[in-house]
Amino acid sequence: MATTVLIVDDHGKFRARARRLLESEGYEVVGEAADGAAAVEAARRLAPDLVLLDLQLPDTSGFAVAAELTGADPAPVVVITSTRDAADFEELAVRNGARGFLSKAELSGAGLEALLAKS
């Protein structure tokens, strides 16, 4: 069974690229959202296994959304992503409930699998 994914990013081109990449690597993308409010609603409705969550959203931060999503039951695994370097945000991502941080430039199925394997 494929891991289901919700992609949250305010840039449509990134969402499309991430969808193509993840689907080509066996993930099932069940939805997309462009802001934090839509992400929370979509996560509740779609119950994805994984939320790929942009750090900077038009209405809130990815950290705030991660904290809200991971406080739910059942909670999806959240991976924060950004164009910025992981060294700057890994600790903050984890403190806010995310499994980790993955740079957009390093997005890959293998990178996500490594984070999913962490417990």
Report what the structure shows.
The chain is α/β, with parallel strands linked by helices and 119 residues long. It has a single domain, classed as Response regulator (Rossmann fold), CATH 3.40.50.2300. 44% of the residues lie in helices and 22% in strands. It has 5 helices and 5 strands. It has helices at 12-24, 36-46, 62-70, 86-95, 109-117; strands at 4-8, 28-33, 50-54, 77-82, 100-103. It has a 5-stranded parallel β-sheet, sandwiched between helices. Helix 1 (12-24) links the parallel strand 1 and strand 2 (28-33). Helix 2 (36-46) runs parallel beside helix 3.
User: What's the number of helices?
Assistant: 5
Query: Helix/strand/pairing class, anyone?
Result: alpha/beta
Shape: globular
> What assembly state would you assign to the polypeptide chains in this entry?
single chain
Q: What is the number of domains?
A: 1
The CATH architecture comes to 3-Layer(aba) Sandwich
How much β-strand is present in the residues? 15-25%
Rg result: 12 Å
The fourth-level CATH homologous superfamily is: Response regulator
- Could you estimate the helical fraction of the residues in percent? 40-55%
CATH third-tier fold name: Rossmann fold
Q: What gap, in angstroms, lies between the N and C termini?
A: 20 Å
Tell me how many strands there are. Answer: 5
Describe the main β-sheet briefly: 5 strands, parallel
Q: N-to-C SSE series?
A: EHEHEHEHEH
The first-level CATH class is given as Alpha Beta
Provide mean pLDDT, rounded. 92
Write the SSE topology.
Blueprint: E1 4-8, H1 12-24, E2 28-33, H2 36-46, E3 50-54, H3 62-70, E4 77-82, H4 86-95, E5 100-103, H5 109-117
Parallel strand pairs: 1-2, 1-3, 3-4, 4-5
